[in-house]
Specification:
Largest sheet: 7 strands, parallel
Strand order of the largest sheet: 18-19-17-16-20-21-22
Radius of gyration: 24 Å
Strand content: 15-25%
Bound molecules: calcium ion
Structural class: alpha/beta
Number of helices: 13
Helix content: 25-40%
Number of strands: 22
Shape: globular
Number of domains: 3
Length: about 500
């Protein structure tokens, strides 16, 4: 087993698979300082101003001379300027030789609109404003105790609680993002086309803005200010839920082609192994899914920004490339308005895990997209119109990316982590993939798939990627549950709102 992982032939650094104490002699190197697990060691002398290269790309420039065998950390590199998004080449790297999936069907819930199928059968209850959350939560608790047991084919009742809806500049241009997110969430494929909406009555985000006109009926909408007191509110909510649950209870899983499956890829709490174990395994599974006809989304703008020219080369046409560039420009500007840039992304945990800057994080992050052509680019919370690999632009924040991808229609999310996070979503199962064996040992009962054996040479990316593909199909088909689903680990839905709050 090699204790050093070098990704690309031109790399002048490698990652330590285990902590390497100062004085270790390893593979022709003398280790000069203690090197923590997952951190970088210089494979050659790197003079001041010279590039430090990993994944075959420049992570940064040495601020001081680095000796062969030195530990390279976040304080030693100057960040390169990000690649320009003007005149990026497209269609230069279109890979069609994708791995064959072991199966091309899954068991899902078809939807009346004919779009993506559900992986779960859930009563989703939308809200127009945070003001109704207290009442709704009391009602949902009662629904779960008194109604849900009557309907064994329904998996859960999920309130779409959020912080948007009032005290916001509802006519600001960027208000379209949270509005689109909430409109699309109301019709999520796991909710079976059953609309149930709770409003207050005086909020800025009206029912008319949330729903199409034809859907605004007393059968679908409850306005709390029209109810005579608390008991009447609870009674109305219980009555509507009972009716919707009875309809949902008739849904049945059927064998469907993978073209009815839409899944999301995300990573959080990444480390330097993420880009060589967990994310490439996810990429391999993504390639299999795409080959089988499924739709796979990946996201997180700041975590692809430094590799965006590689993504452009995979765009199928100029239109897709142009939208990719437009989303990057929008985000560059969004960050600049807040007087920061992409270097605000890596967390203390990322750095402890050996990721010294956003370039290194991005190159690892992109690996989860596999090698498929990119057929479409979405603005935050937009719905896709194509099948295949899609770049859905969202913030990288796990808690904001999740709801954006849900609004875009994912019915299952695959989440890669190196440091560990118990993240989960109520509206769709989340499968957790870790990047190192130590993480799996620590969180046996939270990590679903361990990609760590790739770093120690005990498994290949193809093997773990195939295991992950099989896990995705089993969980999507309701034959298996991820740990986050089993324990009901449900993060809040933080709706991305780039518009002002008033
Ligand atoms: Ca993330």
């Amino acid at each position: 087993m090699s204790l050093l992982v070098k990704v690309h032939n031109s790399d002048n650094v490698a990652i330590a698979v285990k902590p390497l104490p100062a004085g270790t002699e390893i593979e022709g190197l003398h280790i000069n300082q203690d090197i923590p697990q997952a951190h970088k060691v210089a494979l050659e002398d790197i003079p001041t101003g010279s590039p430090v290269i990993r994944y075959g790309v420049i992570l940064g420039y040495a601020m001081n001379p680095i000796k062969k065998g030195d530990w390279i950390n976040e304080f030693m590199l100057e960040l390169p300027t990000p690649p320009s998004v003007d005149d990026m080449e497209y269609g230069k790297n279109i890979v069609t030789d994708l791995p064959n999936p072991p199966v091309t069907t899954f068991e899902g819930y078809e939807n009346p609109d004919g779009g993506y199928a559900g992986t779960r059968n859930i009563l989703g209850i939308s809200t127009t404003v945070q003001c109704v959350t207290g009442v709704l939560n009391v009602a949902v608790k009662k629904m779960k105790e008194e109604l849900l047991p009557k309907y064994p084919n329904v998996d859960d009742i999920v309130p779409i609680n959020h912080a948007y809806g009032c005290g916001v500049a509802i006519n600001a241009p960027e208000a379209k993002v949270p509005i689109r997110a909430l409109r699309n969430l109301a019709k999520h494929p796991n909710f079976g086309g059953q609309l149930m909406v709770v409003g207050l009555g005086c909020e800025k985000f009206t029912v008319e803005m949330l729903l199409d006109e034809a859907d605004i009926t007393p059968e679908n909408v409850i306005i709390l200010q029209e109810k005579k007191g608390f008991d009447a509110m609870i009674d109305a909510l219980m009555e509507m839920a009972d009716r919707k649950l009875a309809i949902l209870n008739q849904r049945k899983r059927t064998t469907l082609p993978l073209s009815k499956l839409c899944i999301g890829m995300q990573c959080g709490g990444s480390d330097a192994f993420s880009g060589v174990t967990a994310n490439p395994s996810a990429g391999y599974a993504a390639d299999m899914l795409v080959k089988g006809g499924a739709t796979v989304m990946f996201s997180e703008v700041t975590e692809v920004r430094d590799g965006v020219h590689y993504l452009a080369e995979r765009c199928v046409n100029a239109e897709v490339r142009d939208k990719l560039a437009a989303e990057m420009r929008w985000y560059d500007n969004y960050l600049a308005e807040g007087e920061v840039d992409r270097s605000a992304n890596p967390t203390p945990g990322n750095k402890k895990g050996g990721l010294c800057n956003i370039v290194e994080k991005a190159m690892g992050s992109i690996a989860k997209s596999g090698t498929s052509p990119i057929v479409e680019v979405l603005s935050p919370a937009e719905k896709p119109s194509r099948h295949g690999l899609i770049y859905a632009a969202t913030p990288a924040s796990d808690i904001v990316c999740g709801p954006c991808q849900l609004a875009s229609g994912i019915t299952l999310q695959v989440f890669m982590t190196g440091r560990g996070t118990p993240y989960g979503l109520a509206a769709a199962p989340v499968i957790k993939v870790c990047s190192r064996n130590e993480m799996k040992d620590m969180w046996q009962d939270l990590i679903d798939v361990n990609a760590g054996p790739i770093a120690t040479g005990e498994a290949t990316i193809q093997e773990i990627g195939t295991d992950l593909f099989n896990k995705i199909i089993a969980v999507a088909s309701g034959k298996d549950q991820s740990f986050a689903e089993k324990y009901k680990l449900h993060n809040d839905l933080c709706i991305f709102n780039p518009a002002p709050i008033t």
